[in-house]
Write a sequence for this structure.
């Protein structure tokens, strides 16, 4: 799967990038391999389509101002807590001959029998595994099959997984990924004794309206 992003260099920085976003473009930077960091702008719609397929593990061909494509990874995508769409993007240049370290997302497949029967819950403790490998050997995701978890407290740990020889796992082998956990028992609240209603009557209504939180301030704009 070949993915391509087109970008242009930008001189608009700081708070002025709001104008780019209003035009449907996304500000970002390209960096890595001792080359100067470059401020760029990307088409918002195109970026969302590519990011949906590439995530942070698939190589993307970046074409800057119509020049020669260079391989990059989408390193970071910043989002606004209230506005839809990416607010800023970090793209990392890679060398196909140089190993790199990154987080590979975990995908849960199958269904544990105790969970299927309604006797337990599936507790997911780990959502990604850190690995080191060459760019062309990056797994798109790591599948964890839970259909073999037959009993309560059965679990899958990092050392239970199989990885290609070209991939070095950096996450600790004893780290638990997923576990079959018994349903939690919710205790019923103990009824209060009679005769205490009047004690609190005098204080009812105190503090009403106090402590209202102000709306969160706008986050600082990315350069």
């Amino acid at each position: 799967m070949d993915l391509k992003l087109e970008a242009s260099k930008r001189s608009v920085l700081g708070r002025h990038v709001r104008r780019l976003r209003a035009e449907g473009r996304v500000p970002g930077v390209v960096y890595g391999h001792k080359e100067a960091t470059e401020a760029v702008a990307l088409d918002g719609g195109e970026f969302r389509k590519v990011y949906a397929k590439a995530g942070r593990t698939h190589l993307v061909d970046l074409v800057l101002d119509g020049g020669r494509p260079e391989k990059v990874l989408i390193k970071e995508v910043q989002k606004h807590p209230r506005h839809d769409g990416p607010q800023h993007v970090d793209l990392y240049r890679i060398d196909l001959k140089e190993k790199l370290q990154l987080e590979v997302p975990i995908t849960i497949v199958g269904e544990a029998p105790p969970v299927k029967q309604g006797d337990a819950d599936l507790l997911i403790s780990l959502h990604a595994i850190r690995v080191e490998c060459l760019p062309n050997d990056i797994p798109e995701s790591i599948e964890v099959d839970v259909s073999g978890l037959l009993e309560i407290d059965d679990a899958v740990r990092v050392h239970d997984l199989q990885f290609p020889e070209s991939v070095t796992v950096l996450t600790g082998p004893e780290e638990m990924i997923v576990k079959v956990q018994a349903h939690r028992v919710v205790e019923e609240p103990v009824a209060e004794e009679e005769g205490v209603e009047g004690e609190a009557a005098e204080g009812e209504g105190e503090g009403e309206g106090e402590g209202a939180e102000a709306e969160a301030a706008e986050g600082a704009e990315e350069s």
Q: What stands out?
A: The chain has two domains: 4-93, 100-182.
